[in-house]
Design a protein that fits this description.
Chain lengths: 279, 288
């Protein structure tokens, strides 16, 4: 690997990994051991063992169809909505995520999810954030208004929309819609956020704004981001996991700190993939 | 040269198709306009306030249609009071709780489609046998309303189900990812989104119910007195129009007036439903 010219991808400056004060216990880790998922007889990924560090931003990279999204769906039990079977073990902090009696409503409040295509509801900007808060038991209007404002400030949307909070969220641009979806998830004060290619449906400028937003959320939440953009993974991630298709199913090839994975990959596939030779 | 003739022919074909489409549109508008004009010309004369409020006399040749209007509205109200809750529940069950390809869901859907295509006279006979005699409701507004509900339900359910299926799955995924319960997803996300379809289905069903004659002759009856309760027999507007134009010589002018009123009633219900859809959506999208 000594001859690999990796300079095409600008290296991120070294960073200290320290949780924001008071957030350490709120951020939690995910630990998957021999986790597998299958749709009927079709296996999506097999035997994935991966620890996701608390308060880190973990990038998941790999070609299409290697089980990245299926893996992400396990982490907040969105798999319950799919006709699939999950085996192995998966923990969120101390919680066993594969426990059939787990309160998924409470889990999903803890572990938010952002989709590839922005999906604000067909209601006003304010209500998009306020309605879930109210459903989770927040009653006082002033408290809700405060949370809405704080969430919108967190994603840098407040100044853009504060004069039209009661207009439809569908009138926002794609990038604004995606940030609204992130704000909606943040308002519930989650411990972790799962982001499934949050930038891929956006234009380059909006994509940059969302990327900056993810950077600003780093250390405050455990973030897991699927991305097809290797340069982006390198810019924003603390840790990276590479999935690959092997024998018709997804497998985890390599995972580790971003610099190690990009500069001293241990696996042949990783080396070729990040050089752009394969995948 | 060759290119030029081909372009020429292409353009000719385009303009012919355009003309045909316009022609079809104009024919449809003309037919509707003709119908409406005919109604207005013949019906506006007798249509006075006293016609709307007084009782009919001389088999409908004289007097008004007050009791008939009341019966019609009562039959319609009974019908919709049954159709909307049952229909909404069934549609939600079909769209949200059954797989589109499951045998049970398919069986229910197929049955509804067949029911929707059954001629109204068959519903009339069924209603007469079941509600009037078997359940002992007699010839009454209640029997008529329930029979109409049987007719309107299939249309209403299928239309509302389509409305729910048209809501993108991203909304359901988004709601689940926010930890919303199934009930909250239904009432706070899906229902507001489907409100316009819901109102359209309502208008469609009301239209079918209010225009019905055959099913009502055997169930709610002919009596043109003012109904005292839902158990009284009552004559619907459509039955009145049918009777005036078929069985009463010299009743044509009043038949026209009643028909005009029927069309006006439909238009009014349509307007109200659209207004409700807009108002509820406004309320749902607002801050509160």
């Amino acid at each position: 690997m000594t001859t690999t010219p990796l300079n095409i991808l600008p290296s991120a400056p070294p960073r200290e990994v320290v949780c924001a004060p008071g957030r350490d216990e709120a951020c939690a880790s995910f630990t998957a051991t021999n986790l597998s998922l299958a749709y009927g007889s079709k296996s999506a990924f097999r035997d994935v063992s991966l620890r996701i560090n608390p308060c880190h931003l973990t990038g998941i990279i790999g070609p299409s169809g290697c089980g990245k999204t299926s893996f992400l769906s396990c982490l907040n039990r969105m798999t319950d909505l799919l006709p699939c079977r999950v085996t192995g073990s998966l923990n969120f902090g101390e919680t066993n995520l594969l426990d059939g009696s787990l309160d998924t409503v409470a889990l999903r409040r803890q572990v938010g999810m952002i989709f590839q295509k922005p999906n604000p509801f067909a209601m006003s900007i304010h209500r998009n954030i306020a309605m879930p808060l109210r459903e989770h038991g927040m009653k006082s209007s002033s408290e809700i208004d405060e949370s809405v404002e704080q969430a919108l400030r967190d994603v840098g949307l407040w100044d853009e929309v504060k004069d039209r909070l009661n207009t439809s969220a569908l009138a926002l641009s794609g990038g604004q819609q995606q940030r609204l979806c992130i704000a909606r998830a943040l308002a519930l004060k989650p411990a972790a956020l799962l982001l499934d290619e949050p930038c891929s449906a956006l234009d380059p400028i909006a994509s940059g704004v969302v990327e900056d937003l993810m950077l600003s959320l780093r250390r405050r939440y455990t973030l897991i981001v699927i991305t097809h953009n290797l340069a982006q993974a390198r810019r924003i991630a603390d840790d990276v996991a590479l999935f690959w298709v092997r024998e018709g199913t997804g497998v985890l090839v390599e995972s580790g700190p971003v610099d190690q994975l990009f500069e001293q990959p241990r696996d042949e596939i990783t080396a070729s993939y990040i050089r752009g030779i394969r995948g | 040269m060759l290119e030029a003739t081909r372009n020429e022919r292409h353009r000719l074909r385009e303009s012919i198709i355009t003309m045909i489409i316009w022609l079809i549109a104009i024919i449809i508008i003309t037919i509707f306009g003709w119908l409406l004009t005919d109604l207005l010309v013949h019906g506006l004369g007798p249509l006075t306030w006293s016609y709307i409020t007084t009782e009919p006399a001389d088999a409908g040749r004289a007097g008004g249609i007050g009791p008939i209007l009341v019966s019609t509205l009562l039959i319609l109200a009974t019908c919709m009071a049954v159709t909307v809750p049952i229909g909404l529940g069934t549609a939600i069950f079909l769209a949200e709780y059954t797989n589109e390809r499951s045998p049970f869901g398919r069986a229910v859907r197929r049955s509804l489609d067949v029911l929707a295509a059954v001629p109204s006279i068959v519903f009339g006979l069924f209603g007469s046998a079941f509600f009037c005699f078997h359940l002992g409701m007699g010839f009454s507004i209640l029997s008529g309303g329930l029979t109409l509900a049987c007719m309107a339900l299939p249309i209403f359910i299928r239309a509302v189900e389509q409305g729910f299926r048209a809501v993108p799955d991203e909304y359901r995924m988004g709601a689940a990812a926010l930890g919303l319960s199934r009930w909250a997803t239904l009432t706070k996300v899906l229902l507001p989104t489907t409100m316009p379809t819901l109102m359209a289905a309502f208008v469609l069903s009301v239209g079918r119910a209010v225009a019905e004659t055959a099913a009502l002759i055997f169930t709610s009856g002919y009596v043109d007195r003012m109904p005292q309760s839902l158990m009284d027999s009552g004559r619907a507007l459509s039955v009145h129009i049918f009777d005036l134009s078929m069985n009463v010589p010299g009743g044509d002018d009043n038949a026209y007036a009643s028909a005009l009123l029927l069309v006006g009633l439909l238009l009014l219900i349509n307007l109200i439903a659209t207004w409700i859809a807009k108002a509820t959506q406004r309320q749902w999208t607002a801050t509160a």
